[in-house]
Amino acid sequence: xxxxxxxxxxxxxxxxxxxxxxxxxxxxxxxxxxxxxxxxxxxxxxxxxxxxxxxxxxxxxxxxxxxxxxxxxxxxxxxxxxxxxxxxxxxxxxxxxxxxxxxxxxxxxxxxxxxxxxxxxxxxxxxxxxxxxxxxxxxxxxxxxxxxxxxxxxxxxxxxxxxxxxxxxxxxxxxxxxxxxxxxxxxxxxxxxxxxxxxxxxxxxxxxxxxxxxxxxxxxxxxxxxxxxxxxxxxxxxxxxxxxxxxxxxxxxxxxxxxxxxxxxxxxxxxxxxxxxxxxxxxxxxxxxxxxxx
Length: 294
Prior knowledge:
Elements: H1 3-24, H2 33-36, H3 38-62, H4 67-78, H5 83-91, H6 96-124, H7 135-159, H8 161-189, H9 194-222, H10 227-238, H11 242-252, H12 256-268, H13 270-289
């Protein structure tokens, strides 16, 4: 099975499982977060759906990226967070309930916003005649791997709460393993070009991720949120779902150039995420290994 066949089969399946994992973590009480934390939820949605796409366009302009690669960066910015961002939030000691709520909301909205915004961007960069991007079929495909599994997971959690609680970690692990297999396969397929990709686009991809995390933190500070929720917004705004971006670029649009940007982001975003998790847990590590006084 080559990389293209893996993309057409394993990538949508891994995304479906990721979003199903998000859905089965949601109980009715989780949606009360919207009313309990209206500022935090509004700030996160604003950061994900408005600030991040604008930041992607600004990054592409400042780094003088060719149109096709700028579009790849924009697809990343328009992709919702997934199970990965929820797990990173948990390890980084953020507000996990807020993280899951934001992921669920963005997953319900993105199947409609991504195709519409990307259609306008294709025209802006002059790629609408060279790249095939049927809006309605794309909305259907994105809904099938994001909206449907989230809603299915919510229903399953409501109907079979106890089994879902037991299955939740296994669904997440299966999704992460499948996505990891997909990323490794794509890395293998692009191994020869990867060093050049890092040299040419690594700064732009990493810079956007870092700037987005900073924007998420600033949004939290402006809204007067506590440190835990600021970290959550930094993760939810800064770390997007590379799987969704890869599916759109490789399976739907079938652009190797755009896919290379999404793949590069999927690899490089792990580094700022690792630094954040380490920084948030460093005081605990120090206390754990600090000799106790007599």
